[in-house]
From TrEMBL:
The lineage of its organism: Bacteria, Bacillati, Bacillota, Clostridia, Eubacteriales. This is Lytic transglycosylase. Gene3D superfamilies: 1.10.530.10. Keywords: Signal. Residues 1-29 form the signal peptide. Residues 73-167 form the Transglycosylase SLT domain. InterPro entries: Lysozyme-like_dom_sf, Transglycosylase_SLT_dom_1. The keyword Transmembrane helix does not apply. It comes from Clostridium beijerinckii (Clostridium MP).
Amino acid sequence: MKHEKLKKLVTLTLVIGLTLTEMPMLAKAATTNSTITTNPAKLANLTKTSVSKPSEVPSNIWKYAYNVDKKFSKNGDFALLLCAVIKKESNFGAGLSGSPSSGDGLMQVEPSTRNAYAAKFKSTYGRTYNHGNLQDQVALGGLIIKEMVDQFGGVYNGLLHYNGGPNWYPGCTDSYGRPILADQYANAVYKTYKNYGGKK
């Protein structure tokens, strides 16, 4: 019986172009007493991504963010986070025109930070960072955010340190003595991310 289910599973994966690793529910069914569905609607539901492009996010921005998401195998949730950051940092690029920081790009990564991450960018993506390339701007920002999330434990804490830097703490100030309000930044971006359907 299990052999018959496995044969059926292989046939299904060939027909719909998926592998066992992409269809864990079907793989499990092949080794248990579960029934493998051949209902096309049910199969479509199994293969749907759990996220979709938020309506306010421009298609090109979503594409850049989703490409980075795929690189880190985040199943779409990271793309939502990147879009929330891009909205806050540059209003999806619309806020760059005339801004004194327009040269820092979609994700407002300053030159010193870009230089500090140049080697890591190349080892991660296999190419030299090109600041004139919008995809690279999002890829670099994504690399930094992922590092902050991993280092500080969770999306919200990652946002605090993406904005305030890895040494940020409540009440700290910049070189001019001004308070770094990373908590306000994180609150705003995290709210947008959750409104987009973010799960973390």
